Amino acid sequence: MTHYDVAIVGAGPAGMSSAIEISQAGFTALLLDDQPAPGGQIYRSIENAHTDRLDILGPDYAEGKRLVAEFRSSSTTYIPNATVWNVSRDLTLAYTREGVSHGISADALIVASGAIERPTPMPGWTLPGVMTVGALQILLKAHGLLADAVVLVGSGPLIWLLAAQMIKAGAKPSAIVETLPLSHYFKALPKLRFNRPAFSYLKKGLLMMRSVKAAGVPVFLGAQGVAIEGSSRAEAVSFEIRGRMHRLPAETVALHQGIVPNQQITRLLHCDHRWSESQRSFLPVSDCFGETSVANLYIAGDGAGIGGAKVAAMQGRLAALRILEKASAVQNTATSELLAEIEKEISIRPFLEELYLPSAEIRDPKENTIVCRCEEITAGEVRASLASGVPGPNQIKSLLRTGMGPCQGRFCGLALSEIAAQYLGKTPASVGYYRIRAPLKPLRLTELANMGEAEVPQAPVKQELQK
Amino acid sequence: MLRRIAGRISPDIVFEFDGRPIHAAPGDTVASALLAAGETIFRSTPSSGKPRGPFCMMGVCFECLVEIDGVTDRQACLTPARDKMQVRKQRGFDATASS
Ligand SMILES: Cc1cc2nc3c(=O)[nH]c(=O)nc-3n(C[C@H](O)[C@@H](O)[C@H](O)COP(=O)(O)OP(=O)(O)OC[C@H]3O[C@@H](n4cnc5c(N)ncnc54)[C@H](O)[C@@H]3O)c2cc1C
Ligand code: FES
């Protein structure tokens, strides 16, 4: 088993920044990522993007070029297309790549696995043609594919960003259906802080919204009772605004209700987690440097709590510097500067969190709405099991098989905790979350059989980097 | 329907989807090439047999599972499209995740 000083999971801004810092200090760093190229969600496929695509995707995306180039020129061992499926508390780790499993060990591990989109259970959300807003953005960023006749549904900055990017690319969405109760705007305003980073985020947001409105995209605010209609694929979106019904035909429906930390690895390791009322999600507990309740296991970036790409990069550096500090027993002044900078950068979050708090309808879906997509279990079935005395997510899992399909609860876990909490009149913190076990993704027996024989293919991987 | 605003389909990457030839562009995954070719249904569910297609495109939802060259449960959104692949719609799941 190959050993590294530091292993990192995730090649987004957080993971790349960690790797740069570790390798610059002369330590060995391994970075594993399940995508074919570095960049993570925000900078996906940035190395292949030429001027026209950079123009469509905007300056925040283009900024990633420098970081990715710096990462590529570092001495990090970078392994793309590698999905981490197991991590143990002794910091050994298993990943699969092209059907073969490999194991490595490390003295410290930085989990920089980012965020995923919040589950958005609503009638019709399993129909083909319904995707997440992030999925449409990935098709645009990574594959230069643009959808026509799209209705964007939900709430959050990513909806406006995608709409603005689509308009620049030459296909304006047919409509935006925002599910925010209008009261959120009034509640959020007092949380606005006026400093330079907050002002710049706000300005960007307002400019995006203006460009969408200027392009003539119909925007429906305060939509309730959203349902996607269709027999074998999405055909229309229906909803209600102040008692009036609307129905918009759509070939593609893109859903979004904000993003939440991807908790798979920290849950697998039984790290402590806490419930964040303002982010309405569980967050791994860590100290200010990102060290979790498991020694030498760090969390950085949106996986630690949503802070955005700039904060992710700084947290990645911070965790790395902390590891180096501990290894050399020499304090680094850069850490306190980073902490102060992160503090300033996140000052917009309370406003955004209040504004984009997911609506009650999403947190407590209607009876026959599917909650667990893999096993096709409805909110009604979940409530019926609670009514019969089943106490929480793990027992519901054994009874109904929710969270036991291949996605392992990634797209139902949070929804289930919310439904159970609501039904039992408890907090999500007290009902808890699914226990997560390895493998983190379905594995074939042949993949496991190869485990241990094959070492990390150092030379071939390095060659691949040169291409 | 999706259209390409960048990248071109290449004569060197043609795979079959239930017998239909699908032309892919360099950098395509199986999922992006299929979506670009107008295919939205990738599998059917194990219990009710309902049609499903890609949802997240980032490897987390497992809605894009297909059979590739005889191997089931492959995530089409994470699998690079290659010439002469034999891709088939999948019914249900095969390998199971942890319990
Ligand atoms: C779909 C989506 C689109 C987004 N688009 C934008 C945007 O356009 N602009 C913006 O400002 N913010 C965007 N965000 C927010 C985003 O979270 C950024 O803030 C930023 O990318 C966070 O950086 P990160 O390094 O924490 O994680 P990420 O950039 O998310 O990187 C994490 C990486 O880890 C990989 N990974 C996860 N689990 C494993 C595993 N088990 N094995 C191997 N690899 C794994 C992921 O595939 C990913 O490549 C988006 C978020 C999502 C979910
Ligand atoms: S589309 Fe979600 S895993 Fe492939």
UniProtKB/TrEMBL annotation, chain A:
Start and end residues of each BFD-like [2Fe-2S]-binding domain: 370-420
Keywords: Oxidoreductase
Pfam families: Fer2_BFD, Pyr_redox_2
GO molecular function: oxidoreductase activity
InterPro entries linked to this entry: BFD-like_2Fe2S-bd_dom, BFD-like_2Fe2S-bd_dom_sf, FAD/NAD-bd_sf, FAD/NAD-binding_dom, Metab_Enz_Cyan_OpOx_G3PDH, Opine_Oxase_asu/HCN_bsu
Domain of life: Bacteria
SUPFAM superfamilies: FAD/NAD(P)-binding domain
Domain FAD/NAD(P)-binding: 4-316
Keyword Lipid metabolism applies: no
PANTHER family the record matches: ANAEROBIC GLYCEROL-3-PHOSPHATE DEHYDROGENASE SUBUNIT B
Identification of the protein by name: FAD/NAD(P)-binding oxidoreductase
From TrEMBL, chain B:
Gene3D superfamilies assigned: 2Fe-2S iron-sulphur cluster binding domain, sarcosine oxidase, alpha subunit, N-terminal domain
Record carries keyword Oxidoreductase: yes
MF-aspect GO terms: iron-sulfur cluster binding; oxidoreductase activity
Annotated SUPFAM superfamilies: 2Fe-2S ferredoxin-like
Family matches, as Pfam families: Fer2_4
InterPro entries: 2Fe-2S-bd_N (IPR042204), 2Fe-2S_ferredoxin-like_sf (IPR036010), 2Fe-2S_ferredoxin-type (IPR001041)
Superkingdom of origin: Bacteria
Biological source species: Metarhizobium album
CDD domains, sorted: fer2
Keywords: Oxidoreductase
Protein name: Sarcosine oxidase
